[in-house]
Predict the 3D structure of the following.
Amino acid sequence: MKAILSLAIAVIGFSACEKEEIKPINKPPYGGVVQTDTLGNNDIDSIVGTTWMLYKWSNGFQTTERSDTLYFINSFLYMYNSVRSNYQLTTSGSQYSLILEGTPIGDLSGLVPRNFIRFGELNSEMKDISNGQNGINYQVWLKKL
């Protein structure tokens, strides 16, 4: 009787277990290869679909607190509050080059750390390139929402 009871418990125990399907991490939605930059990071692509807040900028003389929203639509368009503009995020040596066109203080360009998207924080110097290379330098603070 004990043998039958033990066998019944074992059968019930094994049949109650479900096999869990193992799913790959970072599987691209389009079924292809995850696009990466030259160092093997996929951060350039991961900015698409994210929302950031530009909460401060400074030109060295005056600091301005802001609460502007930046939403990155695709690999070249973003919304600054409700205004659609172009941006570029490209590899530049050991950093990224970021250009944000159409901000209230001009078209900003600067080198930014590669890990800013992953950490959700950016504090970098960017230059207004609206009028060529003689533009004003700004310290810009952004935070991922």
In short: The CA atoms of residues 12 and 58 lie 68 Å apart. The radius of gyration is 24 Å.
